[in-house]
Amino acid sequence: MNAPHVRQALIALCVLAVGALLAVGAVSIPAAAGYAGVGPNFLPWAVAGALLVCGGTLLWQALRGGLRDLAPPSGASHGDWLALAWVSAGVLANAALVTRIGFVLSCALCFALAVRGLRGAEGRPAGGVRQTLVDVVGGSLISLPVYWLFTKLLAINLPGLTGSGWI
Amino acid sequence: MNELLVNLAGGFATAATPLNLVWAFVGCALGTAIGVLPGLGPAVTVAMLLPITSQVEPTASMIFFAGIYYGAMYGGSTTSILLNTPGETGTMVTALEGFKMAKNGRAGAALATSAIGSFVAGTLATVLVTVCAPVVAEFAVTLGPPEYFMLMLLAFTTVSAVLGQSTLRGLTSLFLGLAIGLIGLDQITGQVRYTAGVPELLDGVEVVLVAVGLFAVGETLYNALYEGRSEATLHKMNRVHMTSADWRRSWPAWLRGTAIGFPFGTIPAGGSEIPTFLSYAMERKLSKHPQEFGTTGAIEGVAGPEAANNAAVTATLVPLLTLGIPTSVTAAILLSAFQNYGLQPGPQLFQTSPALVWALIASLYIGNVMLLVLNLPLVGMWVKLLKIPKPQLYAGILIFATVGVYGMRQSALDLVFMFAVGLFGVAMRRFDFPAAPVIVGMILGPLAEAQMRNALSIGEGKWGVFVERPMSLALMVVVVAVMVLPRMARLLRSRTVA
Questions:
Q1: Mutation site, B157, B166, B171, B402, interface A, largest A CB count within 10 A
Q2: DSSP 3-state assignment of A125?
Q3: Which of B141, B140, B144 minimizes the C-alpha distance to B465?
Q4: A126 at the B interface (CB within 8 A)?
Q5: For residue range B327-343, what is the model confidence (pLDDT) as tens digits?
Q6: Which among B206, B173, B201, B193 has a CA at the least distance from the CA of B441?
Q7: Which carries the bigger pLDDT value, residue B416 or residue B40?
């Protein structure tokens, strides 16, 4: 079995796992069928069963020559995992910091990290301190107006560095 | 008929207030922009903006969201013609001939026929919506839970089994979506399901989270991982102008495209892919210049599909408003916007919120005029958006994703979930699992479940209720046909070849 088929089999196993998880959860949902004859536990069991069947079929296909009717994926055949790591770092840093340093700065940082990763994916130099500063400013120029639009115009709460609603 | 005009006039009165006009304009402009930009579609944009439903009144925000939806179809064609990467799936076919025309220095004519064609089709389709929607709503009142359940089943079937390469993977996506939809309180008994004791999950998983994660974040991560070296060439613009020969060749194609697109939008057939392809095939067959197709680019091949696309998109409002059944991903997200307001689209909506419904329909007329102006004389402005470098574009999308997801529930943990869904989206795209059934499944799933159980209550627990009622039986036959016929056709074809 070659590498893509191993990965396909892993995906199939994930689907099976979700199905199994749903089934385990469905055990604790009472039937409470009433007049309908089917209660709140009916669809959970049905979906769990369907996912197990789908996952099983996917696994069978993966082990027997790979998934059927597969469109070739777009883009490169090998992933640029370093670029993905940079972009991921940006999103996760944003999640960790947004309530601490405010929406604007946190998003600017996310922007800078993501741009760095995406630039690297294009094979261009990531740039030094200067470039990073430019990126942070660029990110702020997007996040600031968005922040104002939401906090000032639409009165939707976003976390700020200060309580003023301006930054 | 008279009542219709009175209703419509009332709708115009509401839609034409300065504030609502501003919402319509911003919606159309934003729609055009995100249609032009690769990486952002109308579904994810509306999803990101769902937090505004907590502050903006329903009529204004529905006018705004609808503007984004059909505005994106105008903008998407610009990208298809100039860049050959369709901005929207519905404009995929436009890229076939449009890009060839642009290559041969006829970008201006292609842009003009697609903008005017979109306007003609959009406006005609709006007239049809105006006339059809009340009739369908009146009819829909007579439908009971069994019929609704069958209609929803039909929507599930078409979105997962008909579209995409593989029925198996489509169904897998659908069931994953249904599984997400199960989380939270059961609609009928109030039973808690799959919340793992987390109180935030009682209301279910936010649509914003899943849509933004799958489409925006997933797309960005996919780009970083696989698409860094993919290059696209931007074609030069020239004067947006059609010769009289272009007009002569375009207008029959617009009308035919509208005629094909509208019916497809009203049935749960998964949006605008099928009608645009059908229209393309028809224009190719009917054209007096078949030699231009696939070589220098035939203007009919742009005009027809563009019209079909816009007519289909406008027509999706008919089942959405009258039956509460979304036939595309964006319509599904519009449905959840209605739900945020505690409104349930369906036949009753015409009685309970006539002002909203008619203002929305009136805004379609206004919006199409706005879009014609935005996309004909001002097309050059949007083309500049295509010059934004990819890293900055996708990193910027992440900022907007954050606003939408965080703004919905003010929870930083949701951003982590969004990232997880994004990773999941990368895997789905790499292994060719369609994303649309996940969204439709999670939004429509709980509604379908409620209809099914109500239907069974009517039938006193017997499944026979679905076949005893003639309308329900007829719909069931359609569902089965939709599942079986394409496969039979494929089987027969492979037999005759072999």
A1: B402
A2: coil
A3: B144
A4: no
A5: 888 999 999 999 999 99
A6: B173
A7: B416
pLDDT, tens digit, 9 for 90 and up, residues B355-404: 999 999 999 999 999 999 999 888 888 888 888 999 999 999 999 999 99
Matching residue, tokens 């069978």: A60
A120: Cβ contacts below 8 Å, ≥ 6 apart: A80, A82, A83, A86, A126, B228
The token pair at A43 is 């669809």
Note whether B399 contacts A143, CB cutoff 8 Å. Answer: yes
Chain B residue at shortest CA distance from A89: B419
Determine the distance in angstroms separating the CA of A127 from the nearest CA of chain B, rounded to an integer. Answer: 13
Those of residues 10-29 in A touching chain B at CB distance below 8 A are 11, 15, 18, 22, 25, 29
pLDDT digits (tens, 9 = 90+) for A42-60: 999 999 999 999 999 999 9
Q: What is the ipTM of this complex?
A: 0.94
Chosen from A87, A97, A104 to mutate, greatest number of chain B CBs within 10 A:
A87
Top residue of A41, A68, A122 to mutate, by most chain B CBs within 10 Å, is A122
Question: Is B221–A58 a contact, with Cβ atoms under 8 angstroms apart?
Answer: no
**CA–CA separation, B337 vs B331, rounded Å?**
10
Kindly determine whether residue B226 and residue A80, on different chains, have CB atoms separated by under 8 Å. Answer: yes
What's the per-residue H, E or C state across A107-120? HHHHHHHHHHHHHH
Q: How far is Cα B179 from Cα A49, in angstroms, rounded to an integer? A: 11
Instruction: State pTM to two decimals.
Output: 0.91
Tens digits of per-residue pLDDT, B236-289?
777 888 999 999 999 999 999 999 999 988 887 656 778 888 899 999 999 988
